Amino acid sequence: MMQSNYYHHYCLSQLLKKGLLVIFISLPILGISATTTIDENNFNVLEQQQSRKLSGVVTDDNGEPLIGATILQKNTSNATISDANGRFTVNVSGDSPVIEVSYVGYLTKTIKIGNRTSLTIKLQEDSKLIDEVVVVGYGKSSVKRLTSSISSVKGDDLVNMPNTNIISSLEGRATGVFIQSAGGEPGALPSISIRGGGEPLYVIDGIPSTKQEFSVLSPSDIESFSILKDAAAAAVYGARAGNGIVMVTTKKGTNEKMTISYNGSYSLSSPTQPIEFLDNYVVAELSDRAAVYNNGMPTFMKVDANGNLYWPEGVLDAVKNGTFNDVTGNTDWNSLLFHKFAPMQSHNISLNGGSKNTHYFMSARYYTLGGIYKTDISKNDRLNMRMHVDHYFDQIGLRLNGDVSFSQNKTQYPPNGLYTIWTHVARLNSLARCFNSAGHPTGGQENPYVEIDPTAGYRKNDTRYTNMSLSMQWDVPKVTGLSFGALVNYNLYDSFNKDWRANEAGVGPVWEWNDEPTNLGKARLDEDMYRSNEVTFEARADYNRTFKEAHTIGATAVFNSWKYNYNELGALRRQYETSVIEQINGGPSSTAENNGTARENGRMGLVGRLKYDYKMRYIVEANFRYDGSDKFPKGQRWGFFPSVSVGWNVDKEPFMQPLLNNNWFSALKFRFSWGKIGLDDVGNFKYLSVYNKGNDFYEGGKWNSTLREGDLVSQDLTWYSRNTINLAVDAEFFQQRLSANFEYFYYRTTNYLANPKDAYTTPLGTAMPMVKTNSAHRRAGYELNLAWRDKIARDFKYNVGLNLSYYNELWERKYDEQESDLKNPLRRLTHQKSYFDLLYVSNGLYQNMEQILDSPRPQASTLLRPGDIAYQDINGDGVIDTNDRIRQGAPRFPHLTYGITLGASYKGFTLDVLLQGTGARNMLLESFNRKFNTNQIGLAGSEKFYYPGNTGEILYPRLTNNAQENGGNNDMASTYWLLDASYLRLKNVKFSYDLKYSLLKNLSFISQFELYVSGNNLLTFSPVKKYHIDPEDGRDDESMGQVGYPVQKIIQFGVNLTF
Questions:
Q1: Which residues form the TonB-dependent receptor plug domain (predicted)?
Q2: Other C-beta atoms within 10 Å of 320: how many?
Q3: 8 A C-beta contact, residue 1005 and residue 81
Q4: Cβ distance 980 to 1028 under 8 Å?
Q5: Cβ burial, residue 853 (10 Å; 0-12/13-18/19+)
Q6: Where are the alpha helices (DSSP H) in 343-430?
Q7: End-to-end CA distance of the chain, in Å?
Q8: Helical (H) or strand (E) element with 800
Q9: Measured by CB atoms within 10 angstroms of the end CB, which terminus of the chain is less buried, N or C?
């Protein structure tokens, strides 16, 4: 049944892809250069009119050419765009042709041609158009009328960035957005936070989405990002918007002639921190030095009469040659395990255009990313297809919109997982052999060489997203400003996981030192299928009108419903007799296991918005959402989330006009917002009593199925409630060349749900229910944005920008904090700002035995010697125990981030630079990175441990044979392993040249031929680099300092071509 379902899913996906491809190929028909007229006696007359050529040049007020201005003959499809010199040639037809000339940021000009064959056209800047339009929840707003807190990023700024996912592209570009890398693993997704909150809501073209679907969007399809940060912006999305919203608007068609665009790139990536191994003889010397210091015997060297180590004759050469004995060698692990570079390539093609009433956009993209493993067992492939078509029936004021998109994301990893492999890489050294004397891989199952063997198996995932939307908007005739709209969206998610292991260990063939094959067990296969579908319906009414050129009123009402269904099915078989058949039916039925589950959710909401402004001077906006969720019991399912915001454009005041006449002052605006948003981040149906199925009864020599009563439930489940305040000031100076923005925000969250087990006697055999607690949490911070744009002479333009975000947080009340901790100012959590963790405090390393004898130490610590870690007795009781663990350090997730942008352009040359960094931030080295065991000497930097006479830099305690040799003294979570992980990165550099400015300037059919080179993470400055790790190494913000697939730096070469 599972294979049959997957087959039908596969056929459906193939049919959708082929259908999209047919539409994609046939769409250029919409760009036919002809006009259709209606004859009273014949309704099907296609009239190809006689034409003549019109040429000219388009400039601004200063006479500078405008590149890419659109020249369109009205009521026809005759159109062109100006070239690099502002020149154009277009066919015009008819006796009295009229053209429209338009350019972004300039007033559109209408010109009657008459008999003229050439024109010089000057366009004037439009101050209204300079007021940028941003996408908000259920609508759009100009920046001048914006009263809430929203950051915007243009999609075109991210197209040529060599990032492996679209989320990483936002890092350093928008205030209030905190992003933490998840390492360089193909397909890995970073953590993202808005102003320090949890995972935000992702919205694509007005439809809530998942982080996974959002991350695989094609950058070339994105028109803009909007980051909705305060309740005034996010409250219209109700319970899912408590952590803010990342909103994407994709590209739509235009009323211009069809353009074809291609973007292609090829990239090479490598670890930001090179993987370097110590020479084998260095490892041998360090191991012997540690052995002698710990009263052991050296293996390779000898000890002279003075206690000094020396190399006996011939031994050093034997070690270097790998011939010292049968189990040591001189292994070049880099050449065996890793490529120098991992390849990445992307190809995107799009069609864009339309006519007066019909617009279309379509694109397709293929992306592939390889891994750094020599066997190419790790990779990520993506396919994106998207189409948008809309048509406007101008006689009745009706616009229909259709959108279809398909995304496929495929990943493959070694069966043992990347984290497991990298813990073993961390223990490698060049003295260890990879092969035995017979040339077979050896060293056990922890040898990374056999873990990345393609014959070991694989973990594959194939995830597909299919999204279809149909919407309409009716502008009611004869009622100015009134419109009605509706939308239906269907989203299908399918994911298939296949975990195949050619043997139970999940490694390639491995032999013992005596060349006996290691028994690795038989093959196994684990398959899982996940499918969900979502249906969203939306009906809305809008009214927008300006009265007497002074009073603008806007109103929006929306009804929204959402239905979600999810199914999961899994199957497992073990003990395969052969590893040739990689299918479920190839395994014995006696080992078969299966599992499955299903769930459903629903939401319903009413959204309202009222907005008023007077001459764009005073602006007031009120929003609400009345939100219903089936996660709560009756009586608690509906929540009301209101917001109010106001804005004052001071520069619109009459008394400010004298200042506006000066060149140094341009604009000033104040904003304030208050709102309440909610979170329903709880499990499904926690208010219902359930029975759990298990295998808890043993009889007849086996465990039998049972039913038992589930956890106790409560009818007191309700929304998390978050109140927000936002204060902001926006200003512009020197004729808008300098812009500045400052915002202060404050969040207070209550109604936390928890299991207060300490407040009640726990009933036998069951857990206490989730109930509302008195916990309260506060978070506050500020954002700063500065930008300068100017030009020197005629062709040289430049820009400089700074964005900075900071927040901190504390528990106002925390229901589960123990009274003993509340009384301890060093351990208390309540009313304390963010910190890293409760840690032991290190006094550095013991330098002599007297210091050891005179100091308190952990009860379990034994056989301490100089070079071991010393600890502070915080409470002075003479013993180091858990009571000496106190708050220490800065949080893993940075609370201060900043980005610096630099840009310049000269004729066809463009240079863009992004620097990104963090303030105070700590990471704790995990055990695999704490180089104090002899089996951890191998990677560069591990030689910096303590031993008598070491006058160099010391990063690690003395070496021991294992972590428990001194009672685990050096492996305790303490400030000794707490590292300053703040950093500054050269996050992105892009240099490009458009050949349209030189070699191709006379080719009118080409509007862009840009060649570029860009790079990511090219330079990193951080105190942790001396430990030979990257400041963002780890799988997420909770595992910083752990070993894992390394963060990558990328060099990309690409081309942008537009016809």
A1: 144-245
A2: 14
A3: no
A4: no
A5: exposed
A6: 418-425
A7: 49
A8: strand 796-813
A9: N
Distance from C-alpha of 309 to C-alpha of 285, rounded to nearest angstrom: 9
Tokens found for residue 347: 């190809």
pLDDT mean across residues, the chain: 87
Neighbours of 50 (CB within 10 A): 8
Beta pairing partners, 497:
461, 528
Residue type, 452: I
**pLDDT of 1008 above 50:** yes
Residue 377 clears pLDDT 80, i.e. is over it: yes
Burial of residue 869 (CB within 10 Å: 0-12, 13-18, 19+) is: buried
In this structure, how many other beta carbons lie within 10 angstroms of the beta carbon of residue 488? 14
Q: Determine the Cα–Cα distance for residues 98 and 100; give it in Å rounded to an integer.
A: 7
Position 206: which residue type? Answer: G
β-bridge partners, 593:
572
Is 937 strand, coil or helix? coil
Residue with the two structure tokens 């201005």: 69
**Helix residue ranges, H only, 201-272:** 211-215, 231-234
d(CA 221, CA 405): 11
Distances in Å between the alpha carbon of 600 and those of 530, 582, 932?
A: 13, 33, 51
Q: Are 129 and 102 in contact (CB under 8 A)?
A: no
DSSP secondary structure code for residue 822 in this structure: H
- Mean pLDDT of the 852-881 span: 92
- Rounded distance between C-alpha atoms, residue 303 and residue 308, angstroms: 5
- Model pLDDT for residues 321-339, shown as the tens digit of each residue: 999 998 899 999 999 999 9
The count of other CB atoms within 10 Å of the CB of residue 948 is 11
Q: CA 383, CA 418: separation in Å to the nearest integer?
A: 24
Hey, what are 342's tokens? 């991992």
Q: What is the DSSP letter of 884?
A: G
Query: Could you give the domains of the chain?
Result: 35-127 (2.60.40.1120), 129-253 (2.170.130.10), 280-331 (no CATH)
Asked if the model's pLDDT at residue 637 lies above 90, the reply is: no
Q: Could you tell me which residues come within 8 angstroms of residue 208 by beta carbon, excluding any fewer than 6 positions away?
A: 201, 202, 237, 240, 536, 562
Higher pLDDT, 987 or 1036: 987
Q: Is residue 764 within 8 Å of residue 776, measured between CB atoms?
A: no
Q: Which of 48-52, 197-201, 693-697, 989-993 has the lowest mean pLDDT?
A: 48-52
Instruction: Look up residue 227 and give its two tokens.
Output: 């980051």
Spatial distance between the Cα atoms of 623 and 557, rounded to a whole number of angstroms? 10
CB 710, CB 763: distance < 8 Å:
no
The amino acid sitting at 37 is T
Residue 539 to residue 526: CA distance in whole angstroms: 44
Report whether 520 contacts 507 (CB < 8 A): yes
Q: CA dist 767 to 246, 595, 976, Å?
A: 37, 25, 39
Tokens coding 826 = 């060093």
DSSP 144-162: GG--S-EEEEEGGGTTT--
pTM of the model: 0.84
Percent of the chain at pLDDT exceeding 90: 55
Per-residue CA distances from 334 to 101, 325, 338, 379, 429 (Å): 60, 22, 5, 19, 11
Residue 616, phi-psi category: left (phi > 0), alpha (psi -120 to 50), beta (remainder)? left
Query: What percent of the chain clears pLDDT 70, i.e. is strictly above it?
Result: 92
Reduced to 3 states, what is the DSSP secondary structure of residue 143?
Answer: helix
Identify any residues that bridge with 594 across adjacent strands, giving them in sequence order. Answer: 571
DSSP string, 589-640: GGG-EEEEEEEEEEEEEEEEEEEEEETTTEEEEEEEEEEEETTS-TTSSEEE
Helical (H) or strand (E) element with 1008: strand 1008-1021
More confident of the two residues 335 and 40:
335
Taking only the tens place, the pLDDT of each residue in 281-306 is 999 999 998 888 888 899 999 999 88
Alpha carbon distance 876, 871 (integer Å):
12
